Fold each of these.
Amino acid sequence: MPKPPVIEDKQIENLLKATAAYSRVPLRDTALLLTLYGTAMSVTELATISVGDYLDAKGNVRVTSAVRVDVAHNGEERPLFWSNKRVVAALDAYLAWRVERKHGVTVKKGAYRGLDPESALFLTEDGGAYALTKRKLPSGVWSYSCNTLGAYISRLHANAGIEGGSAQSARRTFAVKQHRQGRDLVHIAAILGHKSVSTTKRLVEGDPVRLSEIVARAV
């Protein structure tokens, strides 16, 4: 099975510009894409992570948070960091937009910036949660997926002319970029939620980095 493509920085910038210009919900979609590329969460995680995973009761960003057990794609809690300023700025703008439209708000004024902490961080255009599909694996374990959001993310990439772009390619892009910068595979695996470093190693293998770039950074 071919690996998803690595999306380079210039392509990501074009993706964000195209989304901001043509999306029906530009603030949400740019925040969604930046969170996707900035945290390497899976589609299901993006669909189920809550406002309370991003904000504390005082409305401050939880710089150090977690992908909870009931959210994590592998059923194991892992660290989640809201430390990227660009991601935070986009999310803050989107959440302010949500409050204006009363999407997922709470009656407790002031708490969580007026948002329901249990509401999903990313909502549909109508202000509802994304629907999850549930199926039982041969092992007996229940698996959840969010095909609607996954297809939408792929469509955003296609609209920007990025062939094969998807949530899976964003996760691989995150891993490859960190590996290029010399990050340890153990730490990359921890962020991605891989139980085995070998899974992360397979993901970064075949990095399409151009040989000219390697030489250009030699000295």
Note: The two ends are 37 Å apart (CA to CA).
Amino acid sequence: MKAVVIENYGGKEELKEAEVATPKAGAGQVVVEMKATSINPIDWKLREGYLKQMMDWPFPIILGWDAAGVISEVGADVTDWKVGDKVFARPETTRFGTYAEYALIDAPLLAKIPDNVSFDEAASIPLAGLTAWQALFDHANLQAGEKVLIHAGAGGVGTLAIQLAKNAGAHVITTASEKNAAFLKELGADEVIDYKTTNFADVLTDVDVVFDTMGGDIQKDSFKVLKEKTGRLISIVSEPDQEIAKEKKCRGEKYLVSAKWGPASSICGFNGGWQGKSHCWCDIPILGTRGL
């Protein structure tokens, strides 16, 4: 099969189209004929070598952590899926990613693509959607009526986090540039703070949950706006300063996203179809391009 691989760490010029072995389904696995994937920060970070210590794999490496397509082969012991099913997933983290014609995926990681969702839309959901869901609900235990601050609301994770939090009945605050304010309010944000002109720490208090996607000084300042004793800061970037958390009597936690859907399957309301908005800013042909 054809795939986009890297054989060295570096810039986008390292992306190369190559012929590689087509995967075969083992027990508990399926092969998915890829219709769409997406590009996430982890892709360029791995490509440039920033994640080498965490993912020290031999070359060639196929990037890609979002899959949307049609099952072409089913392995032994797979009973819930069949050839022809339209599925999407965030596969396990291996050097055999989804920038390819086919991808090997563990069956428990699959979810059905709702009828009203395109392959492009489906491919934009798994990694970002699971990241947002697990931060807000599995780790922060966000409740209806609580105030949540979501940093960088216009990003892939942020746009889904806003919708999930709003759907859960939370009061949603986000940081973004003014040009994205109207768009984010359409998604469900109750307040949009222009980070270019306003320091969120100067205008917010008594926030129940902060979803930190930035780290650094933004993470430190986020403790200032949290409620004492019950506030929770959940980061996907860096470990929060536990001394600051202790002083504030709050909880600070960093986590790594899991590939398993679990309760997050309701992201797409599988019984009734996707009710949110997944935004595809542009379509890029994976094969035959170096524009990733």
Note: The two ends are 20 Å apart (CA to CA).
Amino acid sequence: MKKHQLNDSTCKDIISQLERNEGDPEYTLPPALGVVLLHYRKRVVVPESLRNNLVELYHEYLLHPGAEKQFRTMATFWWPGMEGDVTNFVKKCVDCKKAKLHGGKQQYGHLPPTPASNTDRPFDVVHVDLVGPFPQNYYCLTAIEQQFRWLEVIVQKGKGSAATALSFERAWLCRYPRPKFVVHDQGPEFTGDEFQALLLSMAIKDKPITAKNPQANAICERVHLEIMNVLRARPDLNDQLEVVLDYAAYAIRASYHTVLRASPAQLLFGEDMITRELHFANWSFLSKQRFMAILQDNDRENRKRIQHFYRVGDNVMLRIPARERKKTDPVSKGPFVIKTMYDNGNVLLDTGSTEYRTNIRRIFPC
């Protein structure tokens, strides 16, 4: 330290002034461990040549503490802008980004609103998903019409692509007009040959959402939540899965929907399922309601996120979902480079060996 202070022009000038009894009285030259070192307010002045090494040494030695904790621990040292240097170093530590979970706002980048459907025709767009597993490896396929939120559920054994294709054909295609689009996640039950062959044979275009981004299929996720609530509310029917799912589907079809301002059944049949009272839908009003709901949901989610603008070429970390890692495993991987950006909040990452498309919900700046 003494050698580096004497070789640093700024420290050397201050030491010369002190030896002449001049300069800022906040600087002193007390002995420390038998060596006379330059101090500022009783803290050792660290010359520029040692600052990065000292910050890195403390960060490694203390097993990657947070920025404030490390700064407070290094309180015996000082240099201009020390707190900012420590904070910037910790922020850029890749090992910290891979290993640490943080509380508070940690989602970066505002999400664009989900685009409204480009068609107002009922049954053009259907969302599908699986919920489960239930006892004895049973799953439930949910199929939901986008305009009315009309729901069909069917129990199937396992989650193979063939079983899922058969369930969708029985529960939906055999009952309702052929959809133009089917929205689904990238699970093998939907991307498998059998399900894709069914869509191809019916001239239905599939619209897979980005991997591990369930919010993109939020219609199904909300229904799954309601189904699980019904299952928990009727524990006496836990051994009769098909019965309780029929009850759950009936409750959703007959219940008031806050966005639609009516139940799905009232919109589809023009009357209430219980009282048989006639219902006349204002489709122009409903279209505006759906659009306003999209904006409100988008604003609500963005209030929980940190404003950040990603750009092509940025280095980012990719979060690993909790269900895919053990408690001691890293929580993210990377850094990866953003190769392409899309208007819907998706990005294409260059992982070195391949390209990976994901949503900004799963990344954060490196």
Note: The first strand starts at residue 27 and ends at 28.
